[in-house]
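Changelog-linked ticket: 4G3 example.
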Amino acid sequence: MGMMHFEVVTLFPEMVSTIAEFGVVGRARRKRLISLDFENPRDHTSDVYRRVDDRPYGGGPGMVMKYEPLAGAVDAARRRSPGGGPVVCLSPQGGVFDQATARRYAALPGLILLAGRYEGVDERFIESQVDEELSIGDFVLSGGEVAAMAVIDAVVRLLPGVLGDDESAARDSFMEGLLDCPHFTRPEEIDGHTVPGVLTSGDHAEIARWRLKQALGRTFERRRDLIDKLKLTDEQQALLDDYLKEQRQ
Ligand code: 4G3
């Protein structure tokens, strides 16, 4: 089983490297299930000021990342990537990242993530060297680093051997495409708040039905767009109708 290799092209490698120390991603790296390396465009400048950005043609506010330092950095990252992999630029102009994209990336030998700063990247570099532009959501960040970290985390969790059996990201097919059900842990009563009785009943079939019903109800209430994408089975539709009926009582 080949380890997946991540390269991040960034002006702030120390910022991104923190994810490789902690939690699930940290453990995956220590187990050699992934490798993570960085390339700084600043190390691919040839002028005395080590300039990585410049003013935009046409005028206006902000700065644009220069082509040449990015080209040098991405070339170095490609040379280090054993099985290759696409160059993905994190940007608000990209298609929106989702679990399906995470699954597609998890099947690749590697990923080269470009985390831009300033107002963005010279468009000629995107046209000639970038395979995909990707956004983690409709909001603006000061740089692509936090977005790159989100993508790495979501992908690493899907790699074989990364999660243990009880924390496995695999969800049964009934729950796919739905928001998660509510969770509770000890104590059974706290500040007058109790745990739904079904969860302490020991009836595992009834617990599974309750969880699916909650997942359907919460998804309907909070994310109608996700429900509309699904083709509910007769059983799921009945559970959702039950949930909505109980809410109205
Ligand atoms: C513009 C990604 C801004 C162009 C990056 C990079 C938000 C996201 C930036 C560019 C970002 C996101 C840096 N902000 N929603 N800022 O994924 O290439």
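Closing comment: Example verified and attached. The chain has a mean pLDDT of 96. Residues 4-156 form a domain with the Alpha/beta knot fold (CATH 3.40.1280.10).
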